[in-house]
Design a protein that fits this description.
344 residues; Chitinase A, domain 3; two-stranded antiparallel sheet; 12 helices; 6 strands; 13% strand
């Protein structure tokens, strides 16, 4: 016997069969409960309408609990935190300001979502918390913010002023190379000894002793962590290209030493911290321009930029009206002289 339908005459059970295999909990279930109410003499019309009313309320709640707060956002608003809105365009600008490594992580969908939730939203929430605590009105913080603002503006100015002042031509590189050949003449072989340790505190201790005039060879015999300890750190004669690629910086430092007894800066390799001392050299050769061209370019770019910076500062100062209170400055100098006298 066909079940009786309590819905409108156009909605017949035999024409609208529910597909239980596709029925999901929530809206579909409630719709089914509304339109396919079980029959039975024990269910009165009043009870039936109460049931329908409750089901409708439940349906309304389901339809509004999926994405809370979305109705509060405008079409271009991506997120709103306590009334503060961040648009999609602002979000794009924040992502573009990230360093290259950060941008690579943003290429993945999950990375972009993490950036939104764990950086953009978190930063704004913490900023609002800081404002609640009155930190935005803290004088020390305001001074730091003002200093940072000024520094950013000055950097922008210098970038604008010096933009094309550091360009270096091929002719300039060649001229510098020809006029300074002694800078690019190096020894074919250098005889060196080194000190090598793997601890920064020990390195500092050695540097202190060297500054006091202690003997390099004796310190190498006491501190070296490799086999050269027995020979006072001696590595004998080496040629350029003789060492492994991981010692490229070590080799460069060794061949940059000019006079016997010269000592290098600290060099870091996979084995530890090195100090190199030049003992002897033999033979010489002028390094080809191709090998040193980029070094020359970098040096000339930095020099041109520095010269342009100094010239611009001099010109800007000449246009400005600058008055120094010399009397007050003299008092300031006296204040600084007193502590020096007390120390004596």
């Amino acid at each position: 016997m066909r079940p009786k339908s309590y819905c409108n005459h156009w909605l017949h059970y035999d024409r609208v069969q529910p597909d239980f295999s596709r029925l999901t909990w929530g809206r579909d279930f409630v719709l089914y409960q509304i339109f396919f109410i079980p029959t039975g003499k024990e269910m009165t019309m009043t009870k039936r309408w109460i049931f329908v009313g409750i089901s409708c309320v439940f349906l309304f709640l389901i339809s509004n609990c999926g994405k809370p707060g979305e109705k509060e956002l405008d079409r271009k608003e991506l997120v709103k935190i306590n009334g503060f809105s961040i648009s999609q365009e602002e979000f794009h600008q924040m992502s573009e300001r990230q360093p290259l490594e950060g941008k690579m992580r943003l290429l993945e969908e999950k990375g972009l979502r993490d950036f939104l939730e764990n950086y953009v939203i978190t930063r704004e929430v913490l900023y609002q918390e800081a404002k609640k605590n009155g930190l935005d009105k803290d004088k020390e913080i305001q001074i730091k913010v003002e200093d940072f603002r000024r520094a950013m503006i000055i950097d922008a100015l210098l970038e604008q002023v010096l933009r094309e002042k550091s360009e270096v031509t091929e002719e300039e590189i060649q001229r510098y190379y020809k006029e300074n050949k002694t800078l690019f003449t190096e020894h074919l072989e250098v005889k060196i000894r080194h000190i090598v340790v793997n601890s920064e505190p020990v390195l500092k201790e050695i540097l202190t002793k060297l500054s006091k005039g202690e003997n390099f060879e004796k310190l190498a015999s006491s501190y070296n962590i490799d086999r050269t300890r027995e020979g006072g750190g001696s590595l004998g004669y080496i040629r350029r290209g003789q060492l492994a690629p991981s010692f490229a910086q070590f080799e460069e430092a060794a061949f940059s030493l000019v006079k016997k007894g010269d000592m290098s800066e600290v060099v870091r390799t996979p084995y530890g911290y090195h100090l190199i001392q030049l003992e002897d050299m033999r033979g010489s050769a002028l390094r080809p321009l191709d090998q040193v061209k980029e070094k020359i370019r970098f040096f000339l770019q930095a020099k041109k930029k520095q010269d342009a910076y100094l010239a611009y500062v001099k010109e800007a100062k000449s246009r400005a009206k600058i008055v120094i209170n010399e009397k007050l400055w003299a008092e300031e100098e006296k204040k600084r002289e007193k502590p020096k006298e007390e120390k004596k």
